[in-house]
Design a protein that fits this description.
This protein is mainly alpha-helical and about 625 residues long. The chain folds into seven domains: about 50 residues, no CATH class; about 50 residues, no CATH class; about 90 residues, no CATH class; about 140 residues, Orthogonal Bundle (Arc Repressor Mutant, subunit A), CATH 1.10.10; about 70 residues, Arc Repressor Mutant, subunit A (Orthogonal Bundle); about 60 residues, Arc Repressor Mutant, subunit A, CATH 1.10.10; about 80 residues, Orthogonal Bundle (Arc Repressor Mutant, subunit A). About 55% of the residues lie in helices and about 5% in strands. The chain has a three-stranded antiparallel beta sheet with strand order 1-3-2. A three-stranded antiparallel beta sheet has the order 4-6-5. The chain has a three-stranded antiparallel beta sheet with strand order 7-9-8. The chain is elongated, with a radius of gyration of 47 Å.
Length: about 625
């Protein structure tokens, strides 16, 4: 009977073929039996308690240090089953240290057990706000605690204790954080709590949380902080711990007073000290400002700059850095560029590229930036015309520098160098040109000629170039003519007509030069009609203009009927190859054939007349008296 009374209803229903009807009957008969034996219940309860005690797992069987067992026993905890009914916070409140909690959790895990999960007695977050966030479906478990922009040491301490997401941190308690993460600095928990609640309040007002889940962009907490103070106030807080002379040196060196940056010599003259002493004061001040505690005052600005560098690909020039000042606080009278340089100099994550006005993240190969920029500029110089950014980058891939050093830079780094290079101008449509070209509008002229696709008159070229230029940069036809005439990129192929040298056009300065080139290449005398045809292959002029040019140039002489040769070759005794019969007589034979066709079949063709003309041609050709 004692064993039967010790069984619960669930135990009895677990017996095979025993249902609820039988259970009811057993309970009724048991109750009747107990009514007639009043001393039995006490014995049953005593036996039941003894059985439960025998079923519990002793602390000695748990793999924990004996000192921890003593601590648990002192709190009345003598079995494993009694431990697991407590939460971390409850155990911490019973004088256990967080290291003891970690040991217990590891030992329980080996047995497939864990501590109880109970709501925190003093949670970091208001439970009503947390419920509202969950109701809206905010994925707190996917948002990193990095969005809170906590000091690096604080964030690392939280992650080491398993708090990596906003959800994990929001459901923790102040007691756990103070004991487990910040035992030496419990005041940190209050600041973390403030940052967390402010961030959650912001999340509650948003309609989308994708950027927060992906960790993109600057944290909203940074933007809030920057909007609440001027740049002057932030820097005053940073410089407040410096000695008076050190502070004055830093303000003058970085031009924070809006008067421009001073050199070491200029500052030395004001203070009556040497240039080297000023450098020492500047170095000492930067070392003090670079300490983590002081650098923490700049965390919002540093986060803003670091994000800008990452978005750009690793490097930015000074102009680009100033362009992001729209997200910065009101300057408060402080020089923006000087303030940016000071902030970057105070943080080892940023560095200046030597010999340039380019800054970058030090984890990128900044030593290669000058070489990369020089290579890009060289490619444009060789092209002698603007290139699309993608085409320029593709050409860079094939350079020796890229083949030998390409493994050192990440994706996007070369494009970042291209955009930071102030010697290269990039238009809105992505065309890259050397900045020196902008003063002559050379790139627009070349683009216009490429668009035309053939030699054109300078007035047409100027008109096409002006379509690419803004209203305040229009060029006159005469200005375009001067550029076309004075630059080796262009070739004159007619009166006022120019083409691009890249098209393979010969660079003849005039018609006579073109005729000279044709005769030189032919290496023999040519009839004027043949000579004219070859000259007009590359020049745009009237046919009669070629004859006039040859007749009026002393470099040529007539060596037969309408046949010309170079005077210098005759003087050297070089007659060249003999002119072919078809070249000398072909035109006249064709003319005779044409006359016969005109006369028609009804009229006889006088061959004697044609022979007489050919005889006269031969006499003129071989005469050397002219």
């Amino acid at each position: 009977m004692t064993a039967l009374l010790a069984l619960t209803s669930d135990d009895l229903l677990g017996i095979r073929n025993l249902g609820t009807k039988t259970l009811t009957e057993i309970r009724e008969k048991t109750q009747a039996y107990l009514s007639s034996n009043l001393a039995l219940p006490a014995k049953v309860q005593e036996g039941s308690k003894q059985d439960k005690t025998e079923q519990m797992t002793a602390l000695a069987k748990l793999d924990i240090p004996w000192r921890l067992r003593e601590k648990l026993s002192a709190q009345g905890i003598r079995s494993v089953e009694e431990i697991i009914i407590y939460s971390e916070e409850e155990l911490l409140r019973q004088s256990l240290e967080y290291t003891d909690i970690l040991v217990l959790k590891r030992a329980l895990s080996e047995r497939g057990l864990k501590l109880a999960s109970k709501p925190a007695i003093q949670p970091l977050v208001d439970l009503g706000m947390l419920a509202a966030l969950h109701e809206r479906g905010v994925p707190l478990g996917k948002i990193s605690i990095a969005r809170l922009v906590l000091p690096e040491g604080w964030e690392m301490a939280l992650r080491e204790r398993g708090f990596s997401s906003i959800q994990e941190l929001a459901t923790a308690s102040e007691v756990v954080l103070k004991v487990s993460c910040f035992a030496s600095y419990p005041d940190h928990v209050s600041e973390i709590k403030s940052q967390l609640n402010r961030y959650l309040a912001w999340l509650l007002q948003q309609n989308s949380w994708e950027s927060e889940v992906l960790g993109r962009g600057v944290s909203p907490l940074c933007l809030m902080e920057l909007s609440e103070a001027t740049l002057a106030e932030i820097l005053n807080g940073l410089l407040s711990d410096l000695h008076e002379r050190e502070r004055t040196v830093m303000e003058m060196r970085y031009g924070l007073d809006g008067q421009g940056c001073c050199t070491l010599e200029e500052i030395g003259e004001i203070f009556g000290i040497t240039r080297e002493r000023v450098r020492q004061l500047e170095k000492k001040a930067l070392e003090r400002l670079s300490k983590p505690k002081r650098r923490q005052r700049l965390r919002a600005l540093v986060t803003l700059f670091e994000n800008a560098f990452l978005q750009a690909g690793g490097v930015l020039n000074e102009v680009q850095l100033c362009e992001i000042s729209g997200a910065m606080p009101n300057s408060g009278g402080v020089d923006i560029l000087g303030a940016i340089q000071l902030v970057l100099d105070c943080d080892g994550r940023f560095g200046r590229v030597k010999g340039t006005r380019i800054w970058g993240l030090t984890r990128y190969p900044l030593d290669l930036v000058p070489l990369i920029c020089a290579e890009l500029e060289g490619l444009l110089q060789a092209e002698r015309a603007p290139l699309d950014a993608s085409a320029l980058l593709q050409r860079f891939v094939n350079t020796e520098l890229c083949r030998t050093q390409g493994a050192r830079w990440p994706d996007g780094f070369i494009e970042a160098c291209l955009r930071a290079d102030q010697n290269i101008a990039i238009s809105e449509d992505g065309l890259c040109a050397l900045a020196s070209w902008s003063s002559t509008r050379l790139d627009e002229i070349i683009l216009a000629m490429r668009w035309i696709g053939r030699p054109a008159h300078f007035t047409d070229i100027a008109k096409a170039a002006n379509e690419l230029l803004s209203a305040d940069k229009q060029l006159s036809p005469q200005y375009a003519y001067n550029i076309l005439l004075s630059n080796a990129l262009f070739v004159r192929v007619g009166r006022g007509v120019f083409g691009l040298a890249e098209w393979g056009l010969p660079n003849d300065r005039c018609l006579a030069d073109a005729a000279y080139r044709v005769l030189t290449e032919a290496n023999r005398p040519l009839r004027i009609d043949v000579l004219t045809d070859k000259v007009l292959e590359t020049w745009q002029a009237r046919r009669t203009s070629v004859l006039v040019a040859v007749e009026n140039d002393e470099r040529f002489c007539r060596v037969g009927y309408q046949t010309y040769w170079l005077r210098e070759r005759i003087a050297q005794g070089k007659g060249g190859q003999e002119a072919g019969f078809s070249e000398i007589f072909g035109g006249y034979l064709q003319a005779g054939q044409a006359r016969r066709d005109v006369l028609g079949s009804g009229r006889e063709y006088d061959t004697g007349e044609e022979v007489e003309k050919l005889r006269q041609i031969g006499t003129d050709l071989f005469s050397r008296n002219e």
